[in-house]
Amino acid sequence: MTRKSTANIRKRAGSTRPRRAARKSKAKTAKLHRADDGTRGGGSRANGRDAIALLKDDHRLLRSLLDELAETHAEGHRRQLLARVEDEVKMHTKIEEEIFYPAFRDAVASQKERRLYWEALEEHHAADLILADTRKADVGSDVFGGRAKVLKEIIEHHADEEEAEMFPEARRRFTPSRLRELGAQMAEMKKTGGSKKGALASVASMVGLN
Q1: From CA 146, how far away is CA 143, in angstroms rounded?
Q2: Could you give the CA distance from residue 131 to residue 139 in angstroms, rounded to a whole number?
Q3: Domain locations along the chain
């Protein structure tokens, strides 16, 4: 084999290293995403995502819609966005208050952990109030714009707190299979609409009134 041939082989071999590294990097990134999307422990998207992954998806959608609502000034677009936000908030609240929150409440032991449950219910109530106020405002007014921004801040604060405190605690308390079970229940409720019970019913269930 000539020196030129040997050099060409080494050159080609060297040129494949970056591509191999890139493939390894992509594979590692995909693995990390799978680990965080609720398909750990033998699950798959076909079998359903876990409860936390599903709720985080809702949070991402709501953040996007609220960003757009806070920035737009077109009256027709404001109406459409507010209606979409209201629908998404209602369904998100429903699956949390009827499925995820009661399961979390029953799984935790300390008063500090239960505080997360009560605070989350209060934040839902605050979002309901500002939603109602925003709906009453003239969509072409500065009042509407101001209320839309307050709504955005309240919901984003709530989502941030859940993701920083409640969800990590839930991951520690629930097995992967239990999280997938809760996720399947929530996905089914989103699909069928379910029955709205709300915060008061969640409180009533805790004290055994229903």
Answers
A1: 5
A2: 13
A3: 1-36, 51-206
Q: Is the pLDDT of residue 20 over 90?
A: no
Whole-number Å distance between alpha carbons of 209 and 142: 44
**185/154 Cα distance (integer angstroms):** 27
Q: By C-alpha distance, which of 130, 136, 23 is closest to 66? A: 130
- Do residues 89 and 62 touch, judged by C-beta distance below 8 A? yes
Mean pLDDT value of segment 86-115:
94
Q: Which residue has the higher pLDDT, 36 or 96?
A: 96
CA angle 94, 99, 103 (to 5 degrees): 145
Phi-psi bin for 110: left (phi > 0), alpha (psi -120 to 50), beta? beta
Q: How crowded is the C-beta side of 187, counted as CA atoms within 13 Å?
A: 17
Which has the closest alpha carbon to 169: 97, 102, 114? 114
